[in-house]
Specification:
heterodimer; A: 140 residues; Rossmann fold; 5 helices; 5 strands; B: 155 residues; alpha/beta; five-stranded parallel beta sheet; 6 helices; globular
């Protein structure tokens, strides 16, 4: 996404990480992406005051250890992180997951596409929308 | 948008409301656009069970009677409405408004473009994103409430 702050990707699947990184590079979007392979590591990053806060978080739901849902709950309960928009990017199409994510204040819920072309199109739309948005400047 | 439920536009400026309506028409967005002029009227619309719940709310911030931030404070604290995505569409680019809106869990904050072409482009981008993204429906919530009631009675 355009803007001064990095994008945080919370994703355990190396294949999906590669696809998202490649798509972002093809789209010339998000020159700075931070990747956390687990929700625990993402929280450690976010809670370290020395680290730059991301402008946006892309979150997988099915993660080893702490789940994406638990991560979302933790971020939204933390006054220093609450305003960071979190988009869920998952293979789950369960209505319960969709409703629960929006209940926990996700700002979008995108089902992972099955082909690279579709993934590129999806990330292009996500990038287009969030580049148009004004985002909180955030504290460091 | 992803489903055919109405989009609720909360906007006191009639010219801006007309522009949104025109953009919906030009882009062939199929959702009905319901226009109310302030937060109070928006709440009244949501409270009336005869109306379909909107799939998305487009919210201006500076409005008489009940402004956008007050409206967010109420709807985002209410389990009936908190899930409905709200996109702020305003002339204000004040950092305080942006941060406060995201703290109140808006799903977007877009500063109104001045000319019509860019305005249409913004509406097109919003429509694309909310067609790609799932939007929560309200069926599950009702089922859950039903289950909870039964459990409570069982105890």
């Amino acid at each position: 996404m355009k803007g001064a702050r990095p994008l945080l990707l919370v994703e355990d699947s190396p294949d999906d990480v590669m696809i998202i990184k490649r798509a972002m590079s093809d789209l010339r979007a998000a020159d700075r992406m931070i990747h956390a392979p687990s929700a625990e590591l993402a929280l450690v990053y976010l809670r370290d005051a020395a680290n730059e806060k991301p402008g946006l978080i892309l979150l997988d739901l099915n993660l080893p250890g702490m789940s994406g849902t638990e991560f979302l709950q933790a971020v939204k309960a933390d006054p220093s992180l609450v305003e960071i928009p979190v988009i869920v990017l998952t293979s789950s199409q369960e209505r319960q997951d969709i409703v629960h994510s929006f209940d926990l204040r996700a700002v979008g819920y995108v089902v992972k596409p099955s082909t690279y072309a579709e993934a590129l199109e999806a990330l292009k739309i996500i990038d287009g929308y969030w580049s148009l948005n004004a985002l909180p400047a955030g504290r460091r | 948008m992803r489903d055919s439920r109405p989009v609720l536009l909360v906007e006191d400026d009639n010219i801006d409301a007309m522009t949104v309506r025109r953009a919906f028409r030009d882009l062939k967005v199929g959702n009905p656009l319901v226009h109310v002029v302030n937060g109070e009227d928006a709440l009244a619309f949501l409270q009336d069970e005869a109306h379909d719940k909107p799939c998305l709310i487009l919210l201006d911030l500076n409005m008489p009677k009940m402004n956008g931030i007050e409206f967010l404070g109420i709807t985002k604290a209410d389990p009936r409405w908190k899930k409905v995505p709200v996109v702020v569409l305003t002339t204000s680019s004040e950092e305080q408004d942006v941060t406060e809106s995201f703290r109140l869990s808006v799903a977007g904050y877009i500063v109104k473009p001045v000319d019509y072409r860019n305005f249409v482009e913004a509406v097109r981008t919003i429509n694309l994103y909310w067609t790609l993204s799932e939007i929560p429906d309200h069926g599950v919530e009702r089922i859950n409430e039903g289950c909870q009631t039964i459990t409570a009675c069982g105890r």
